[in-house]
Amino acid sequence: MGWLLPLLAAVFACNVFALQIPLFRDRLDSLEEDHTRAVTAFKLRHVFHHGTGINASLHRRLDVAETPAFETAPELFYLSALSKNVTRLSQRDPDFMESYLAYTRRPGSIKISGFDWIHERVRTPNISDPETLATLARMTADAYVGVPASKDWIDVGAPFNESLGFGWDNTGVRGHIFTDDANRTVVVAIKGTSSTLFDNDGDTVTNDRINDNLLFSCCCARISYMWTTVCDCYEKSYTCSQTCLEDALYAEDKYYRALLDIYRNTTSLYPSATIWLTGHSLGGSMAALLGRTYGVPTVAFEAPPERLAAERLHLPFPPVPANESTIWHVGNTADPIFMGVCNGPSSVCWVGGYAMETQCHSGLECVYDTVKDKKWHVSANNHRIKAVIDMIAGYNNTPTCVARTDCQDCFDWTFS
């Protein structure tokens, strides 16, 4: 792939659906042609599991249609869609994007505004529809579901080394792949954080916490001299190495690189499909980072603020008004993690070993004011995916999605 970097530098320098559901019929009849909405049935087809840490070379696929272990396998998930103008990089195939990421991390690389952008009409989830939001939330909940041991996993990465051990809940990242019958649209639901704090404990807890602390802290979780840091970028009081942080986030054994492989193999299976991404908590933030990388529609639920991580990874931010984003962050005011206030010695995050210091999401925030409307108390319990599903069901409408402009991450830190 080394030959792509010079080529990439040169390039830069020169530079809906068949099934209709009666529930939505009245809405379909009342909309203008350019915004016609349709409803499609999706079904779980595959699960990708990508290893991290010592298992970073492991990447396997389970074809659900051939494995009756999933309770949700026969279930249909109905989603409404509409078309939207999207601005994204004109080239987005995985080889190009990985070269792009490597290039933009080099000293003196061209400013992102100088890249080649394209404007095109894309099918997106209808986030103004409560039923669609609730269904996407159920898809993200599906990614937490455990699966019995199976011999049907297919290696799609390096050959599996049995001596490293392998389990469904072992270290790694999972993506559940849903498609419609025509394989026209694919939804990738990414598993979120496993933690006793959120009632979904599992063997991924340690690695989930490491990636949480790497992505959402100012400097490697260096919030107290008593904390164990997750990288060696801290230099002195409120000073951190920017290059070190970027390298740590992009490391082969961390979650972001694992997601790049999951996306690569998903598009290899469905090269002509429109891809949508979704996820909850850490999975939502990772979906947003992946969505920004490839310019694909993303709905993240209760995701910790990830804009700082996106900037450290040098992900593409289209030169368009923020309200044209196709990354939607759905959350509620009673969730301290989503709101960026789960920090400080008295917080449940601090007690649990999570350095959640960021406050800014990229894309749009769609915030349910559950504190005002439902009298919910601010609590990490309101971060759980079940609470999200119940929350959406408790409203007749979805909130207005806006870009937040009044936040700043890590203002008291210096990054050298």
Describe this structure in words.
The chain has helices at 4-13, 25-29, 94-104, 130-142, 205-216, 242-249, 255-269, 282-294, 307-312, 348-352, 370-373, 385-393; strands spanning 38-50, 59-63, 77-89, 117-125, 154-155, 173-180, 185-190, 234-236, 239-240, 274-280, 298-301, 327-332, 364-368, 401-402, 414-415. With 416 residues, it is an alpha/beta fold. The protein has one domain (21-87, 123-415). The strands form two sheets. Strands 1, 2, 3, 4, 5, 6, 7, 10, 11, 12, 13 and 14 form a twelve-stranded mixed beta sheet that branches. A three-stranded mixed beta sheet has the order 8-9-15. α8 links the parallel β10 and β11. The longest helix has 15 residues, at 255-269. The two termini are 30 Å apart. 45% of the residues are buried. The model is unreliable at 5-36 and 159-169 (pLDDT under 50).
- State the end-to-end CA separation: 30 Å
Largest sheet: 12 strands, mixed
Please report the number of helical segments. 12
Q: Note the overall shape.
A: globular
Count of structural domains:
1
* Radius of gyration (Å): 21 Å
Structural class from helices and strands?
alpha/beta
Total strand count, please? 15
Helix/strand order, N-terminal first: HHEEEHEHEEEHEEHHEHEHEHEHHEE
The percent of residues in helical segments reads: 25-40%
What is the overall pLDDT average?
A: 82
- Give the percentage of residues in beta strands: 15-25%
pLDDT under 50 segments (min length 5)?
5-36, 159-169
Protein name: Alpha/Beta hydrolase protein
Keywords: Hydrolase
Organism: Lipomyces kononenkoae
